[in-house]
TrEMBL record:
InterPro entries: ABC_BtuC-like, ABC_TroCD. The lineage of its organism: Bacteria, Bacillati, Bacillota, Bacilli, Bacillales. Gene3D superfamilies: ABC transporter involved in vitamin B12 uptake, BtuC. Keywords: Cell membrane, Membrane, Transmembrane, Transmembrane helix, Transport. It is a multi-pass membrane protein. Belongs to the ABC-3 integral membrane protein family. The keyword Protease does not apply. CDD domains: TM_ABC_iron-siderophores_like. This is Metal ABC transporter permease. It holds the Pfam family ABC-3. The chain crosses the membrane at residues 6-27, 32-51, 57-75, 87-108, 142-161, 173-196, 202-222, 229-249, 255-280. It is found in: Cell membrane. The keyword Transmembrane applies.
Amino acid sequence: MSYDGWIILTGSLVGISCGMIGCFLILRKMAMLADAISHTVLLGIVGAFLVSHSLQGVNMLIGALIVGLLTAYLVQVLHSSGVQSDAAIGVVFTSLFAVGVILISLFADQVHIDAQHALMGEIAFVPWDVITINGVDIGPKAVYLLGSVLVINLFLIGLFYKEIKVCSFDPQMAVALGFPIMFIHYLLMGMVSISTVASFDAVGAILVVAMLIAPGATAYLLTDRLSVMLGLAAVVGIISAILGYYVAVLFNVSIAGSMAMVVGIIFALTFVFSPIHGLMSKWIMRYHLRNKKFDM
């Protein structure tokens, strides 16, 4: 595959994985918790390095999973204690992220991890960090890591689809049906965590947050069916990766930043022109209702 192809494939994998998970976060009104986890997993990466002295993907995934679940747990504890959810997210997010930055400064400042790199990433370097077996280049590490996480996410979504769906739309009904609400909650948070850390080195937290929120929000405006919403979110993620790359090449700017900008533009256009929930359709509906009143 060409250099351009590997970059587009990497961005598309991020868009598909994060976009589909983002649908459930949007439905559960937990979008900003994804932002918190995407930053606090930096602490998990640093912790994994300090324990194992390695930046291998499995170690980072385990560290991110632990800290991601810890973030969700602490937010839940504070919210249950009477703290508003947005305030709880803000306190936990800034505290754990700050601890991660401090640990980097103290113990890992000479290692290939830093707060700026985690936030911005550099997808342009992905095609050069490859896996070699018996002297044969089989492709970038990031593609295999992101592909593995996508397969895990698809497997878990398929396995617990009914439970996740009911818990997302009607938590009270889920309780009545005996569904394990807290298990589903932490399952989703774990999926967010591993998806975030798998994308960190390649694209950075900013694009991860954009892909976790914007494709799902865009799909939400286009359909009222969850299965269709998941598919649309994945398609939006892919389109954003492709168009974002060529915009970056055209203007010689950040690739990850361009992908995030494109997905934002797609959401803005959908917000205005969506046939179901768009501003234009609402204006047209109000116009017809007003004319009907006058006719009566």
